[in-house]
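[SOLVED] Need 3D model of a two-part complex

Original post:
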Amino acid sequence: MAKDKKPKIRRPRAETPKGFRDYFGTEVVERNAMLARIAEVYHRYGFDPLESSAVETVEALGKFLPDVDRPNEGVFAWQEDEGDWLALRYDLTAPLARVYAQHRNDLPTPYRRYAMGPVWRNEKPGPGRFRQFYQCDADTVGTGSVAADAEICAMLADTLEAVGIPRGDYVVRINNRKVLDGLIESVLLNNDLREPLGKEENLGRLVAQHFSAQSSVDIEETRAAIMRTIDKFDKVGLSGVLELLTEGRKDSSGAIIPGVGLPLDRAARVTEFLVSRKSSNELTLGALDQLLSHSRIGIEGVQELEQIAALLAAQGYGPDRIVIDPSVVRGLGYYTGPVFEAELTFEILDDKGRKRQFGSVAGGGRYDDLVKRFTGQEVPATGVSIGVDRLLAALREKGRLGADSQGPVIVTVMDRDRMADYQAMAAELRNAGIRAEVFLGNPKNFGNQLKYADKRNSPVAVIEGGDEQARGVVQIKDLALGARLAAEVETNEEWKAQPAQMEIPRADLVAEVQKMIARAARPADRQ
Amino acid sequence: MAKDKKPKIRRPRAETPKGFRDYFGTEVVERNAMLARIAEVYHRYGFDPLESSAVETVEALGKFLPDVDRPNEGVFAWQEDEGDWLALRYDLTAPLARVYAQHRNDLPTPYRRYAMGPVWRNEKPGPGRFRQFYQCDADTVGTGSVAADAEICAMLADTLEAVGIPRGDYVVRINNRKVLDGLIESVLLNNDLREPLGKEENLGRLVAQHFSAQSSVDIEETRAAIMRTIDKFDKVGLSGVLELLTEGRKDSSGAIIPGVGLPLDRAARVTEFLVSRKSSNELTLGALDQLLSHSRIGIEGVQELEQIAALLAAQGYGPDRIVIDPSVVRGLGYYTGPVFEAELTFEILDDKGRKRQFGSVAGGGRYDDLVKRFTGQEVPATGVSIGVDRLLAALREKGRLGADSQGPVIVTVMDRDRMADYQAMAAELRNAGIRAEVFLGNPKNFGNQLKYADKRNSPVAVIEGGDEQARGVVQIKDLALGARLAAEVETNEEWKAQPAQMEIPRADLVAEVQKMIARAARPADRQ
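Solution:
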């Protein structure tokens, strides 16, 4: 019996893990081309690339995750034999904080860096929601100057234009967490209060005093609920925001969304704030200044926005590209100052065929506490993250992708003993810079070779049988023209009858294939 | 007491996990540039990019690892909440097998694909040995034709030249696992045996019969030991191989390496085999043909090598680029036919200052069993993997790297209230395609601004104080020239005294900076 102890063969499933996917051909080429264009802009702005390791200690990553909308998300983690817990990075910001803390003596200050690469989230996958995806970040570490925030916004506008989003089809919207803090103060505090507040501790105590009925309510929870509601402004409009801040709202499916429970007059301060975006940045800033005049932190935020707007105006970035918009929230994670978001303003059709704006493709802001975790020192930082997949989808919408999807010229195999001759043809074509290959599958059925060429999106097939060889000629076939028929043709004789095929001297192979490809690239010139 | 339950703050260590590292600036740029050049060659050969997910099920990866020299290496793995074990890929070949099995109905056959990206090994890190590193592979799946192997070898030669290894500084060496199997037969079997063998089962039984003294020895172990010894030929030479195959050998440190224990006449067959590499591929193949005439599998291997050599010769790849070399082994992992290796032949100094050849930078071969694991069907495949870090090191040796390490032009800040003016200057420079940034650190100490410029390897600094502004001029400073002194200069006045600085009209900023950068790029033109 011991002799027969052969292990049972169970075949593994050929599947990506749930929530993961593969990227093929053009998808990879298009993404790399876009990232290269982005890198070019970042480079011109003085940013240096950084590729940190994909694996970090869980300790270095910390527990906080960047996006409040996904509170259940986690990381992929495992324990080393010696004891350390390791994890895949979930974004590019936490690793930057670790890198800066580790290498700060060798890095310039300020340190401008960009990073591009996959990140991983251990969360429930859904349609279009993967557990591995690309991020593309640029950050400036080590300066508290709002000039750094302004620079990131200008660079973001330049980047969008560089990858193919025309001016007018996007807008970079800027707000400030300090302005939002000021608003929260004005909403939660007694109207009569004249003492400006800067610290959250005081805010909590005072709110408890003034809202005695709500003293048991967690201030942070209310603050977060208000922020989330502001974030929905685009979707639900002013009246929707009012309902959500007070008694709740019925959504389009009829479901009841519970309200935050604010008195109507307090909720109205939020809506007043939301309509403070005026026709110019100056007017918007004036309106904010008035609304937040009682709040020290709020006024500080408005002043920072004024400086940013002035810096951008001096470089020619007008409100056609960059606007102050008080409704920008950008999650609650770790932002401490200016926050910004790039939105594409052209319309697309959603799943249900309704028109809607394309929406956000990038966002970021100032976060001054990340490095402190490691070193104890305050290190101010600001940065932006581009949603690579969303931006690719946008470029697809605008027809800015798909330039380089042409397949190789296929040298077909009529006589399998003459493989060396066919390889030599392919080599000649390649040496002239033409993408070319010999068919390496089973050559018996010629139709299969043409089906293969079709699947590869080949522009031209080269055919040389014994007859052609004897006469010193080859056949070349315009496949763009013949693609429709290719699937049905089964023999070489039928194939030769097609009009797009021509016989040329073997010596002219490279020149004639070049001409045929050029012709295929300009279909308007053909009849 | 419950009130004071504040969590204790323990600062996380700012460190990459053991065996991981970060890549900065030029390192990232150089690698990406090299990979882009490789991709261009692969593309021209008709290969399509594939980026598979970094995470696979452990089941799909299988247990076998590619490299016999590292038998203890493992993967980074963890278990999902629902039960599946997941792992980071340890190479790009196992994921290709999974991808091909999963998507075979949508992919062309043959499927030529290339892949570039990090892989992870859970092994003990050492100097220069990391647990995350890049691989760059090209494979052709779905054809058993040796034309596919020949094509990969030709492409490998083209690739090395495209990234900057001149012809003559590399050689692609080709062997065949079937030839090695034939050799093993001739070593292990009785001389008198005339019956050719093809199957390992028979081999084992017959070896047990003929080597009755060794019948308890594991044939596979002996085979592997012989292979490993052949692999050391380059290092220990013919006499070393003889010693290692028989009674063992004292290495340079005096340590005894135990021998395989073959009788001397059997071991001599291996050395005879190793010197069968002659001055031309024809002579080598002739010698192999004689040596392996008794072995069916051996002769099959020689015939395949003949076809490959003929195909390559027809495309002009002579023995200056590609040679048949019986001493190539390439691990035992999963190769079933032709194996190949690209070796750089120029000399470098090793750690101890001794001259040695640079050695292997790429290798691969035919593996016909990987996809079968998933589908049960035989799917022949062949491919190559380039050692990205080794090839980068080689290019560094050849002085082919480091072209684009120039930093940005630094617009210094003399008056922090005029940040908008400085930003506008930087924007002007960038719009002319010049890499430029404003100094965003604390501007108080001007010397620090210059130290920063130095650290960034900036070619030019732009300086505009109130005086300059009033007169409509700016100062521009050639930092390449002034770098030596920069660290000591502490005030603007001293700085202005340096000879490489010039005053120019503000309106000429872009043109004059362009000139100064061009001058810095051609140091021979300077005095």
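Edit: Residues 64-72, 192-204, 210-216, 523-527 of chain A have pLDDT under 50 and may be disordered.
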